[in-house]
Please model this.
Amino acid sequence: MMQFTNKYKSPLGEITLASDGKSLTGVWFDGQKYFGYTLSPKTEDKQLPIFEKAKEWLDGYFGGSEPKFALPIKIDGSAFRMAVWEILQQIPYGQLTTYGEIAAKIAKKRGVAKISAQAVGGAVGHNPVSIVVPCHRVVGTNGSLTGFGGGIHRKIELLKLERVNMDKLFVPKNPANQ
Model:
């Protein structure tokens, strides 16, 4: 299957967008952890209507506005990852949840006593559509800002952009090195 890519210049660094031609299949900060891991070996840099819509969405988002429309996305993964990514998509703009809260929701849905928050963290970290599927809105139970493939410094900036109250969050001393 052919996949297409395009670049977007964000205030936090260049972003690579990916698509199957109709839906958004990837959004990665260049150089981030797991960058492009869902891309097929065959890609073509191309201008597509979905990329124009994604850039419009990102322009509004980085301009400090809650996006007013949803982008068509298509992401594939294990049943567990898909369950985690579905929950990520339900986290409202400017709100936070924890890895433990996501684990509890999945455990309840599956009728099991417990799901590992660490396993949830692994699924969150492999989210191929950063920002649009808001993995940056997930924090540790104690409020620690951990686990963003694009770097903790970017996670902090994204949360500030959404006007999240950072007072109760634990921010590493040197987030640029995270």
